[in-house]
């Protein structure tokens, strides 16, 4: 195996985007490892739509020739809005074929330090040295599963990211836990597939998105309040759209930006699809016990439910130390807070040469890093930093 200047782990929106940007740096020898768009095509239910608007659904390439507009222009029929999940996957695959046709589909088994660089080993046993490693491995290691369900088998409890085909729930009684997009849309898909579904929400009400569309009626004023990235409420949206500015705010305020921008919410177009689904608010599951082929649930108001399955639409909790490919030495060396790595210029961690992209970058660069819209900033930031380092 040849050695590399940079190894990119992950071929989702962030990995593909940074790879496209790094190709512009002359003399840089890098590789990208991972199944393209794997999280989107293998860990999200069929039939879903993107919550993000059209303007916030672009992967990033330096010339801006590989936008979703460019992809749509090449399709035999118009791309619908909201964007279907499968269409977005096809867009990502098209982007990869145009920008990074030489991508390696093998997964990485181990990343460990080797002197001032790294030793990377793939699952097929190949090994090479890499001066830098960029981790853009997505969310699959971070699915959030409440402790109360941790000892139950997948027969009774699964996470929304475990369900590619919800048709398995036809004729089944299902409780969906959560109030975010994945919970609400999963419930809609199960209902439409013929399942009997109820949504249980800890909050007092379901929060529906849509203020941005309403603000358009104010004319130019709405652009002052909402950035095209469409992340965060009015005003906050403009701040979090500039990740390099977020770090200058006090930590308590940064945390508020993240909390307000990531609060559980559903797209407004889901309202009609969930109008016939019972949504139980201000309650949560306090116990879950198997009862033959069923599962008995007790809620916080002491009411009971007997169901065939619980689907956890409980989101994700970042903790980079859960990445299975990081050596123990690296896990101990990466400085973190609440599972998020501390990142400096170029999204570089406390381990020189080790970079993190996507949701793990949110503690340092704000909530935009959770979304596809963050690829433009993150890919450009990393590429500019590495270009400067190459000149030294």
CATH topology of the largest domain: FAD/NAD(P)-binding domain
* Backbone CA Rg: 22 Å
| CATH-assigned homologous superfamily of the largest domain | FAD/NAD(P)-binding domain
Count of spatially separate domains: 3
The amount of beta strand, in percent, is: 15-25%
Per DSSP, the total helix count is 14
Write down the oligomeric state.
Answer: single chain
> Which architecture of the largest domain per CATH?
3-Layer(bba) Sandwich
Structural class: alpha/beta
Topology, number of strands: 16
The global form is globular
Short description:
By secondary structure, this protein is an alpha/beta fold. It has 14 helices and 16 strands.
Describe the 3D structure.
This protein is of the alpha/beta class. It folds into 3 domains: 4-142 and 317-391, FAD/NAD(P)-binding domain (3-Layer(bba) Sandwich); 147-207 and 264-312, FAD/NAD(P)-binding domain, CATH 3.50.50.60; 211-261, no CATH class. The protein is built from 14 helices and 16 strands. The protein has helices at 13-22, 38-42, 68-73, 85-99, 181-192, 211-215, 221-225, 236-240, 243-246, 251-261, 271-274, 328-333, 362-365, 375-391; strands at residues 4-9, 30-33, 108-114, 117-122, 127-135, 157-159, 173-177, 196-200, 279-280, 285-291, 294-299, 304-307, 309-312, 336-337, 340-341, 354-356. Strands 1, 2, 3, 4, 5 and 16 form a 6-stranded mixed beta sheet that branches. Strands 6-13-7-8-9 form a 5-stranded parallel beta sheet, with helices on one face. A hairpin with a 4-residue loop joins strand 4 (117-122) and strand 5. The two termini are 27 Å apart. The model has no long low-confidence stretch (mean pLDDT 94).
